[in-house]
TrEMBL record:
Belongs to the ABC-2 integral membrane protein family. The chain crosses the membrane at residues 27-52, 59-77, 100-126, 138-163, 169-189, 229-248. Pfam families: ABC2_membrane. The keyword Chloroplast does not apply. Residues 28-251 form the ABC transmembrane type-2 domain. InterPro entries: ABC2_TM (IPR013525), ABC2_TM_bact-type (IPR047817). PANTHER family: INNER MEMBRANE TRANSPORT PERMEASE, TRANSPORT PERMEASE PROTEIN. It is a multi-pass membrane protein. This is Transport permease protein. Coiled coil: none annotated. It is found in: Cell inner membrane; Cell membrane. Keywords: Cell inner membrane, Cell membrane, Membrane, Transmembrane, Transmembrane helix, Transport.
């Protein structure tokens, strides 16, 4: 960590470059940060509310309060997996902590999340009239928890992808399945009724608890996450973070040679 802090100026430069390059030569530029989730919100609203007849009060707010946080997960993991291979020429030229590349992608995706959450908060204020003070206090903690979880995952996948390039394609497929298994578009109450005793297995997915907290803050949420599930999510996120970082440190020693 001390070594990474020594390169904080480089980290700032890489994050700024990532944000600038991502929307370069596009007509809407940074507005795509908001346009992409809005477009998906319209599509999922049509499919699940009009066609599938999902009955949830203020469904658009319910949807966007889960969709935008999951898009943070999607962007961080899919782009973070390729963070080392896409910077191979730079890695082979000079030395600096290799962790900077996965961290750069995660932080730049976090910036997009924070911008998008302004939209969610404004819409929540319009629909509900207010956001609970407790929710405002919890919001930074759930963002931190999600970031810790994502960093651990990105550390692992980005390193493996150097040795096996198939990983980035597998991750793109898995992330779609993860979205449908995280109750982004449908209510947890329905899952609980359908699965019965197997509902606990569904909750082993840490994104379920994380998205439930987001929804509790902005939508009101149909369920409040239990202390046990929050504790489990914190534990699994910390485990993946430290295990992922240790794995990265061990495997990244030969990254330059492999590339």
């Amino acid at each position: 960590m001390k070594e990474i802090l020594k390169y904080k100026e480089l980290l700032y430069f890489l994050v700024h470059k990532e944000l600038r390059v991502r929307y370069r030569n596009t007509f809407f530029g940074y507005f795509w940060t908001l346009l992409e989730p809005l477009g998906l919100m319209l599509i999922f609203t049509l499919v699940f509310m009009v066609i599938a007849r999902v009955s949830i009060e203020n469904y658009t707010l319910f949807l966007v309060s889960g969709l935008i946080p999951f898009m943070y997960t999607q962007h961080a993991v899919t782009r973070g997996t390729k963070s080392l291979t896409s910077n191979g020429s730079l890695i082979k030229k000079i030395y600096f902590p290799r962790e900077l590349f996965p961290i750069t992608i995660t932080v730049s995706s976090l910036v997009n999340l924070l911008i998008s959450l302004i939209l969610v908060a404004a819409y929540s204020l319009y629909i509900n009239g207010s956001i609970p003070l407790m929710g405002i206090a919890v919001l930074p903690l759930v963002i931190l928890l999600q970031t810790v979880l994502l960093l651990g995952i990105v550390f692992i996948f980005s390193c493996i992808n150097v040795y096996f390039r198939d990983v980035e394609f597998i991750v793109s497929l898995l992330i779609r399945g993860w979205m449908y298994l995280s109750a982004v578009m449908y209510p947890l109450l329905q899952v609980k009724e359908q699965l019965g005793d197997f509902y606990l297995l569904f909750q082993l997915n840490p994104m379920v608890t994380i998205l439930t907290i987001y929804r509790w803050i902005f939508h009101g949420g149909e369920l409040t996450p239990t202390l046990g599930m929050i504790s489990y999510t914190v534990a699994i996120s910390l485990f993946l973070f430290f295990a992922g970082w240790a794995f990265f440190k061990k495997m990244s020693r030969k990254i330059g040679e492999v590339m």
